[in-house]
Structure formats: structure tokens, C-alpha cells
Amino acid sequence: MAKKGKTIFLCQECGFESPKWMGQCICGAWNSMVEEKVVETKEGDPRRRKEAGTGQKAISLKEVQSGQHHRIDTGIGELNRVLGGGLVRGSLCLISGEPGIGKSTLIIQAAARISSRGKKVLYVTGEESEEQIKIRADRVCQEDLDQLYLLSETCMENILAVQESLQPDFIIIDSIQTMYTEELDSAPGSVSQVRMCGNYLMKIGKGRDVPIFIVAHVTKNGELAGPKILEHLVDCVLNFTGERTQELRILRAVKNRYGTTSELGAFEMREEGLTEVENLSGTFLEGMEESVAGSMATAVYEGTRPLLLEIQALTAQTVMNFPRRTTVGVEAARLNMILAVLERKTDAQLGFMDVYVNIVGGLKPEGTSTDLAVALAVYSAFHGKVIDAGTLAVGEIGLTGDLRSVRNGDRILREAARMGFRKVILPEKNAALITDPPPGIRLCGVRTLKEAIASL
């Protein structure tokens, strides 16, 4: 059944509205009036992005101003990098991570640095009291916090009232699973409550041009808790990962409407809070030992910077009917493919060997540029041959044993030279494009896995 509404006549030339048809508009145009039906909208409907009676007219794309040059600097370089340059006004950003990983610490540090530049920040907490937030802020923040306002509340209607009176420039919701609206009778954290509260927050952010940071819980499997509709609703989804027993934390964008999703930020958890890691490659290679079989250095290109990693491999005679394949940081299916190519194209017979592969540091790189290093590390462990610690290998392995080129090989080469590597094994196509290698680096362009092994 169609909704009832009134009929108006709209001039196509100037946009003038009239309750009746006019032959000539006030702008002078003849026969420019077209009939339109306006559906009556309930006043204050939380499902609408704008208030009733506003924003019902389509506008030309040329009239829309880009927000690319109106980002808010968070004061944290690694966070700005992952966001694509800072917070976009009117955007909704969802950050998730395991309990105790440092989500609240990162957010309070960003809030403190934004507020220290004279912008009002509203920190809404549904899990902690104001005193708990104050204790954390005193420990990890050194900025002036006069413009940082705390609100311990879970009712969305009360949060909206405070937001109307305070008019903040940045809002933090910690966490969305604790929020509820009086319009629904279900418990906080339910699918309907999270969806409705998400709509409220989107109305605030998009309607008032205010960036909003939303904290969300994760399941035991590390996936975002709650309905998927929340992940689709927001503009940016950040995943904060790391081992609680280690200091390194990795922030990665899973979804970003205003930037790339391949960028990552690195932090180190210390007593004074999270500090940015500038030399991430050095952190991953810090414990790399010399003259050890099964160890190989490689590189990946994440976002706008190359990262050097250490891959460790171990092979052992199996005692089971089926050999074990255990991997950390490398996809299991990718490892099985590499092992099959090794058995077919080299003398490494791994059918009755347990194989263990680990990327040191806990990073799970995207892409296939680490294939060659994984194969060489496994080959080194199987034969007990030591690979020179000053050698780095990068390349994708095909099913035929050939090597395929990787992107940004020249930048990877410069990063390898900066970290003190002396020899780089890479696909022949990449080597042919590099006419001026950095001093002290010897290029070794190979076409197949066999040639890469022979170059060692």
C-alpha cells in the first residue's frame, strides 16, 4: 500500500515549488513545471539521516564539496596512516580487538591530542566509570584535557541530548554493545539494539558532520561480534591485533571508504601507553640469528611502505600416518602448494616429513611475495644447509616452478639496503627493471625455483 502524501509542482529550471500547476514560472520559464508527490515523513524518525523536510531534493554531483581536504589530524602518525590521512568529518569508524589489546588506550590518546588543539571531544563510556577513564588518561596522556568531556551513559536518548548541548567535534562510543534505545525492549547488545543505535550514530555523524569512533567487541575466533549490518553501516573498520604477552601491536584497516585497506600501523605497548614504531622492519628482524638452517628473510609491500620479515621453517620425520603441516602467518593452502612444487621440482622429498613454518612477529602478510622465501626456508631446513643471513628472497611461485614478479621491487630493494642486506634474490622480470641498484646490494634475478636454490 502506497504512503499518502501531497502533490506539488516543481520548476525544472529554478526549483521553485508551487501547490498548483503554472504555465509560466516566476523565473520566466514556460511549461517547466513537473508534478511530484511528496511523502509525509514522521518528525524525528531515527531511521532518517536528516530531519524531515530537509535533504529531499537531489543535487548535482558538481555541487557536492569533497571532504578530502577537511580531515582531522589525530596526532598519531600511524593511526593517520591507516585512516588514509586522518579522520574524515562525518565518518563512522569502528575499531575492534581482543580485550586488553589496547583499544581504549589508543582511543584516549587520540582523543587527548585532538582536544589539546582546541576541539571538543565527547567520550561516551558504557563499560567504565569516569574515574577509570581519568586514571588511564593520567597515565598515558600528557596533553591538556580541558576540552575532553566524559559521559558514563548507555541510553542513546540521553547521549543525543548531551551531544545537542555540547556540540562536540569528535565523539567516541565505548562500546556499541552496551548501548540501547528506549524505543526497543530488547537487551543491550542484541541485534536489534545494535542496529538501531548504529542508525542513531549515523544520523549524528552524517547530519552534523561529526566523526565518530565506535568500539566493538570480538568473538573467540577474533571476528567482529554482533550483526554484520554494523560493519556494512560504518565507513571504516579497524582491527587491532597483537599478542598480549608481546609489546608489538598491529592496526589494520579491514574496510575504508576514504583510503586503502592494505595499510597497517605499528605500535608498541609501554607503561606510558602506545608508542609508534617507526622502524618496523628492524623490529621484525631484531632476533634473526646468523648461521641457522631454516631461516630466511623476505619482504612484503603493505600500503605505502615495504616491510622486511623473517621466515623460519622446520622439518622432522613424521611419526603419524599423515605428515603434519603447521603454519603461523602463512595460509595453509598456500604452504601445501609450495611444498608440492618443492617435491616436484627439487630433490626435497617431504612426503613423510612434518613441516612447520612461522613468520616471526605474528604478522599475517597479504599477497604471495613471500612464496620464494618460504620455499627456500623449507629447503634449507630439510637439507640442513645454512643460508647467509645477509640474503633476502622475494617472489611468487607458480605451479610450474617459475617465479612471477612482485610489485614495488625497487622500493623493497632500497629497504633491504637500508637494513644491511648484501644479496637479494628476486624474479628476473623485477631485476630487469632495476637499472641502478643501491650500493652494496648484489641483485640475483632468477626465473625458476631451481635457479633460486642454485644461487644460494
Which superfamily, in CATH terms, is the homologous superfamily of the largest domain?
A: P-loop containing nucleotide triphosphate hydrolases
Q: What is the global morphology? A: elongated
CATH architecture classification name of the largest domain: 3-Layer(aba) Sandwich
Structural class: alpha/beta
Supply the number of helical segments: 12
CATH topology type of the largest domain: Rossmann fold
Overall residue-averaged pLDDT value: 86
Largest sheet: 9 strands, mixed
Please give the radius of gyration in angstroms: 28 Å
CATH class wording of the largest domain: Alpha Beta
Assess the beta-strand content as a share of residues: 25-35%
Question: How many β-strand runs?
Answer: 23
Tell me the number of structural domains: 3
Unreliable residue stretches = none
What share of residues is helical? 25-40%
Strand line-up in the sheet with most strands: 8-7-9-10-6-11-12-13-14
Distance between the termini: 75 Å
Verbal overview:
The protein is α/β, with parallel strands linked by helices. The chain folds into three domains: 1-43; 71-278, Rossmann fold (3-Layer(aba) Sandwich), CATH 3.40.50.300; 287-455, Ribosomal Protein S5, domain 2 (2-Layer Sandwich), CATH 3.30.230. 27% of the residues lie in helices and 27% in strands.
